[in-house]
Write a structure and sequence with these properties.
Structural class: alpha/beta
CATH superfamily of the largest domain: 3-Deoxy-D-manno-octulosonic-acid transferase, N-terminal domain
CATH architecture of the largest domain: 3-Layer(aba) Sandwich
Strand order of the largest sheet: 3-2-1-4-5-6-7
Largest sheet: 7 strands, parallel
Distance between the termini: 32 Å
CATH topology of the largest domain: Rossmann fold
Shape: globular
Strand content: 5-15%
Number of domains: 2
CATH class of the largest domain: Alpha Beta
Length: about 425
């Protein structure tokens, strides 16, 4: 099975990935660093603080996984300050986010591609004491290299969407081989625990620890921070309501702008902040906004201005890693990936700022977080732009409702904290058995 996988992955790399990477190497400034490290060409000095130290290697794919990792890194350094910590990410956004929110990490690298020689070489060079993957980062060649080096592996914040569970079943024995490599599965919920067991994980290795994203602190915003953000974004005292549309996808920006237009008729000083999930859609979103005739400013440009910023009805968040904090300026938050059939995005970040939250009908990938918040009255589901408009108007016009939803959001966060401490308990136990 590994022979077939490696033939396939090598073919896809040569045919698709390599040309795409070479294109990005030409057009994207700074991509050479990621390309080099992804190919396993990591300079000695880049891993010198962790190589051969029996470090804890924590890996996540993108921005969301870095948010989940951040509380655990802090806990590790609090409890085991002598332990070296290596963090790896797949995407540019994830790598940048790790550097921004995890100063405690001893080294941060781009994850090596799952090509046989690349994966095994990186494992031998670093020789970690344990490998921890966030959510479902299962890479066959890498896990095989981990197993051959007798390095324990652990899954934290384990999450299996219903769609993923169905897809993984087609891998059958190949998947079971990967799952057998993992010593412990720390899952977010009982539903995720059930799915991973159905896929072939040993039930004796499965525990439910919760979601470490409830424990994240990198996005905490003080009163001074909030005032600074409002100044930098040109949000004056009369700006109300401020709508933050986070992690939006194609067609969602138009739906939000339709609702925002209706809102502006009653609240002429309403402001909208759009934070697209993918920054390569910036120009596309500008064109969508142009159809509505709003003056728009980009966050990156406003940051360059000193003193009083001009006020724009629509702002575009074109920077990486800021959304978790920018949610703090909003009066109402819409979380994208939910009006389209994508599965939704992280609703815990706006909840941590005590915000009323709106989502669309597609929240399959965040069903547990959504369920907690919706049952508490903190998060409301709408079906389309008309529903979004109605919700915007109702929440903006009712101070009591807005506060009630916000209070419910932060209460859910407070009640569910502690996943990082539970995870660290299992981590120290596992390290103790292996040492």
């Amino acid at each position: 099975m590994y022979i077939f996988y490696n033939i396939l992955v090598t073919f896809l790399f040569i045919l698709l990935v390599l040309p795409y990477f070479l294109y990005r190497l030409v057009v994207e400034k700074g991509f050479g660093h990621r390309f080099r490290q992804a190919m396993g060409l990591v300079h000695r000095e880049e891993i010198e603080p962790v190589a051969g130290t029996g470090c804890i290697w924590l890996h996540g794919a993108s921005v969301g996984e870095m948010v989940a990792l951040s509380p655990l890194v802090k806990e590790i350094k609090n409890i085991m300050p002598e332990k070296k910590v290596l963090v790896s990410a797949v995407t540019v956004g994830g790598y940048d986010m790790a550097r921004q929110i995890m100063p405690e990490a001893d080294a941060i690298i781009n994850y090596p591609m799952d090509l046989p020689l690349v994966a095994s070489t990186m494992v031998r060079r670093i020789r970690p004491g344990i490998f921890i993957m966030v959510e479902t980062e299962l890479w066959p060649n890498f896990l095989r290299a981990i197993r051959e080096q007798n390095i324990p592996a652990m899954m934290m914040n384990g999450r299996i969407s219903e769609k993923s569970a169905k897809s993984y079943r087609y891998l059958s024995g190949f998947l079971r081989d990967m799952l057998d490599t993992v010593n412990l599965f720390c899952m977010q919920s009982s539903i995720d625990a059930k799915y991973i067991a159905q896929l072939g994980a040993d039930p004796g290795k499965i525990v439910v620890t919760g979601n470490t994203k409830f424990d994240q602190t990198y996005a905490e915003v003080t009163a001074e921070d909030l005032a600074a953000y409002k100044t930098e974004l040109g949000l004056g005292e009369d700006a109300f309501p401020i709508i933050v549309a986070g992690s939006t996808h194609r067609s969602e920006e138009e739906a939000v702008l339709v609702s925002f237009t209706a809102l502006r008729k009653k609240y002429p000083h309403a402001r909208l902040i759009i934070a697209p999930r993918k920054l390569n859609r910036i120009e596309e979103i500008k064109k969508v906004n142009a159809k509505f005739g709003y003056a728009m400013a980009c966050r990156s440009k406003l940051k360059e201005i000193e003193g009083r910023r001009p006020e724009f009805p629509v702002l575009l968040l074109d920077t990486i890693g800021e959304l978790g904090r920018i949610y703090a300026v909003g009066d109402i938050v819409f979380v994208g990936g939910s009006l389209v059939h994508y599965g939704g995005h992280n609703v815990l970040e706006p909840a941590a700022h005590a915000k009323p939250i709106l989502v669309g009908p597609s929240m399959e990938d965040f069903k547990d977080s959504y369920s907690l918040l919706s049952r508490a009255g903190a998060c409301r589901r709408v079906s389309d732009a008309d529903g979004l408009t109605e919700a915007f108007l109702e929440i903006a016009g009712d101070d009591v409702l807005r506060k009630k939803m916000g209070d419910a959001s932060i209460q859910i966060i407070r009640e569910n904290r502690g996943a990082a401490q539970r995870t660290i308990h299992y981590l120290t136990d596992l390290l103790g058995r292996e040492i």
